[in-house]
Each structure stands twice: as structure tokens, then as C-alpha cells.
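Input set for joint prediction.
Command: fold jointly, output C-alpha cells.
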Amino acid sequence: MDDASAWDLQSDLAIMNPTTPERVLSAARLARIGPDDLVLDLGCGSGGALALLAGTFGCRGIGVEQRAAAVEAARARLDAAGCADRVEVRCSDAAAPIALPAGITVCLCLGSASLFGGTAEAIGALRRLLPPGGRTILGERYWRTERVPPEFSRDFSDCLTEYELLTLAREEGFALAGIVRSTEADFDAYEAAIWAACRERLRTNPDDEELRAYLDRVQEEYLGYGRELVGWAMYVLDEPW
Ligand SMILES: C[S@@+](CC[C@H](N)C(=O)[O-])C[C@H]1O[C@@H](n2cnc3c(N)ncnc32)[C@H](O)[C@@H]1O
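C-alpha cells >
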């Protein structure tokens, strides 16, 4: 299955990650987001996080997203939330050098670290994008154990343990200000939403063998090892002071 089809299966989710709007707000509070902030959301998807933050805290925002359908959905969401005057969405490659306005104070990278090559590379890229005093919320999956069987670790080669993440963040000059961790129930709900989207499409198109194989594979991965070995959390990175 190509990336566009996999994206489409999540397109009904406001936040395309195993978390909830309440947890995103908790992470934002830990990052001290307020009306004076300008939030840059890298790989912003359909703008759910930006709409939530701009609507709740009155901050301004810029979303960067390479998928045209997501950009369109994000602009519509921000418009409906009454935030379109404060949040701009750009259709471009967030990993490429982009001309950004001065004054960005917070970076969001929720489930988008892969666009930089993985979690380790994303931490470095976020540090370089932020001015002194800037904060970042990095939401990513992590290995729940140091002892990941090699056949599984190859599936998520860019995934870190939390200890590795802490070490890398410190090396880049960040302090870890907080963690907002998803529960197994959050993961179940996220997986179930993807399975439901697959099943809905299969109901009207039962001959789509590629989609059927995809659904089988993601269910087997989740119940075979993902549920036990992989977690997801938002890490709030701030100045060490
Ligand atoms: C897992 S989704 C997360 C979306 C959003 N952050 C959220 O939490 O709802 C990752 C997003 O990153 C986008 N993306 C991937 N590579 C990108 C790139 N190089 N530049 C901009 N966006 C990218 C994808 O199109 C997708 O919408």
C-alpha cells in the first residue's frame, strides 16, 4: 500500500496518532503555550492539533504539510474553528529548507519524525529550527523495552527507547520538561479506527486484495508484538536554563 492510501485510512482522525485532544492540550500546557506564541507544526496533517491549540490558547500557527488533500482539509478545519486568520498552512516538504517568518517559539512534530529520517534526526532538526527559549513537543513511538527481538526492531528501525531519546535531547541542548504518555486504550482506539476505515472500504470493494492484506498485516503486527513492545508519548523539550 502506498503512503497516500495509508494516509487516507487515517483521514477521519483529527489527530492522526494514538493520542487524544486532551493529551495534546496537556503537552501544550507543559510547553507553556499561550497567546504570544507562534507554533510551527511540521507534518501537520489535517490541522487538528493547530486548530485545538489556536482555539484553546489563542496562539498563532504555521502548519507545513506535503500532502495537498491534507492541506485542504487543514485549511477547512481551521476555517470552521474560526482560527484561519491566525494559522497558515503551507503545502511543502517540511524537511526541505523553507523560508519561515521570524518569531517561531514552539515546534510541534507529532508522528512526523520520519520526515527528518527518524526520531534522532528530528531532535537535531527541531533544535536548529528553534531560537533560544523555544520549546518543542515531539510525539513519537518508542520501544517499551531494551530487549526488542531483531525481527521486530527491523520493522521500526528509527524507533528509540526513551532513555536513548532523553540522552539525544540533552546532547542537542534540550531539557526534558515533561512526558504525556498514551495508554494502551489510546493505542487500541487508534488501531481500531484504522481497521474500521479498512473494513468500511472492503465492504464496498471486497476484491481489494491489497487492502485486505494490509489489514491482516497491521492486525498481526499489533497483536503479535506492537501492543506489547511499542509505546507512544509526547516529549516536551525546553531550555535547560
Ligand atoms: C502520522 S501523520 C501526523 C499528522 C499530524 N501531525 C497529526 O498529529 O495529526 C504524518 C504527517 O506528516 C506528513 N508528512 C510526511 N512527510 C512530510 C514531509 N516531508 N513534509 C511535510 N509533511 C510530511 C504526512 O503527509 C502526514 O500528514
